[in-house]
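Work Package 4 report. The design task specified in the project plan requires that, given a folded chain encoded as structure tokens, an amino acid be chosen for each position. We show below one input record used in the internal validation round.
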């Protein structure tokens, strides 16, 4: 026998639909008794909750005073802790505790503090959601048959359903079936992203124009086109970017120079990168007597650089010595230096210390270095 929905359930469904598709009744929703309002919030899908949470700021008329706005804000805080609802939605969609630990570890590596992670579940939800969308888009864009715009790539129904708008697509102003809509709506919430090479394009840069990225993980960068698209994205976020990681990349000196140049702050001979990593990659056309000019400049001007990794890149002792010399000369305050899994066994033992190196060692890297691999 089919269960007949209760009047309460029908009312909640009607309100959810109104929140998603209409605006006429939205201001009245905040006048609900607190127990009903709290119950409503716990039953809302992500997109409806997002719209409801934005309401006090987006729907105030011009005739309303600052005090009215203040009262609305206080009312919202009095009614419900939205973060509790976002945390529930996040854990419901991504329940795997191992995955959550991996995500937190990765975000912390990108410079996001533990306090930030625990206090903004709404931001974490939409950032992870957009990452899922980008991962799906990358899989499609990698297909040999793909020949279109990245923003037009269709998002899987399962993802659209997870945010609660699959039944109301025709009534929404944004086409959530396309990647461009998700970037437009939720790009603001992204601080850290992983991007495949196929997404390193000028179009992606435009899609993420509302983002203020702090951490980027790039994979399989190996062509001029990849680097050109990446440099646009780095340039767009150089004021906020603090962490950059390359994995499975093939980098020529020209590529490295372009990437490092894109990171320098406008009008300043420095950059804001704190964590820089190139792992399981290869440097093409490497000069055994000098580092790429851009990389040398990047390391010497890294005022805020605290961790540096060139792990598993088939590098030799000369490369390790050149990196260490530059850090010494720059009186770097780096705390973590990882040169492991390269062909550099015994490099530090054979390092030729210059007379000036000892004084710099006591002032710079020698004082700050906590981990050397």
């Amino acid at each position: 026998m089919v269960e007949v929905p209760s009047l309460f359930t029908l009312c909640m469904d009607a309100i959810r639909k109104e929140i998603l598709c209409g605006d006429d009744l939205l201001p009245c929703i905040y006048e609900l008794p607190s127990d009903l309002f709290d119950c409503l919030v716990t039953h809302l899908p992500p997109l409806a909750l997002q719209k409801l949470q934005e309401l006090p700021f987006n729907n105030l008329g011009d005739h309303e005073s600052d005090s009215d706005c203040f009262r609305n804000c206080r009312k919202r805080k009095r009614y419900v802790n939205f973060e509790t609802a976002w945390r529930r939605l996040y854990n419901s969609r991504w329940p795997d505790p191992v995955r959550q630990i991996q995500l937190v570890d990765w975000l912390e590596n990108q410079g996001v503090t533990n306090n930030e992670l625990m206090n903004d579940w709404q931001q974490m939800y939409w950032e992870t959601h957009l990452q899922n969308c980008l991962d799906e888009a990358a899989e499609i864009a990698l297909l040999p048959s793909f020949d279109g715009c990245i923003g037009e790539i269709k998002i899987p129904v399962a993802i659209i359903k997870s945010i609660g708008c699959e039944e109301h697509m025709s009534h929404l102003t944004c086409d959530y079936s396309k990647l461009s809509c998700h970037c437009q709506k939720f790009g603001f919430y992204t601080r850290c992203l992983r991007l495949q090479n196929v997404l390193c394009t000028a179009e992606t840069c435009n899609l993420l124009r509302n983002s203020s990225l702090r951490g980027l993980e790039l994979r399989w960068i190996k062509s001029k086109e990849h680097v050109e698209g990446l440099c646009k994205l780095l340039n767009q976020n150089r004021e906020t970017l603090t962490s950059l990681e390359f994995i499975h990349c093939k980098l020529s000196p020209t590529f490295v120079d372009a990437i490092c140049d894109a990171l320098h702050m406008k009008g300043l001979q420095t950059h804001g990168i704190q964590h820089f990593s190139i792992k399981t990659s290869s440097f093409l056309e490497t000069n055994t007597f000098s580092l790429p000019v851009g990389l040398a400049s990047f390391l010497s001007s890294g005022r805020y650089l605290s961790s540096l990794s060139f792990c598993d890149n088939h590098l030799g002792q000369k490369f390790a010595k050149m990196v260490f010399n530059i850090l010494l000369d720059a009186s770097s305050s780096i705390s973590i230096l990882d040169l492991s899994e390269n062909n550099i066994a015994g490099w530090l033992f054979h390092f030729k210390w210059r007379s000036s190196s000892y004084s710099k060692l006591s002032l710079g890297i020698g004082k700050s270095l906590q981990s050397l691999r």
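Strands lie at 192-196, 215-219, 243-247, 250-251, 275-279, 282-283, 307-309, 336-338, 371-372. Validation will be extended to a larger panel in the next phase.
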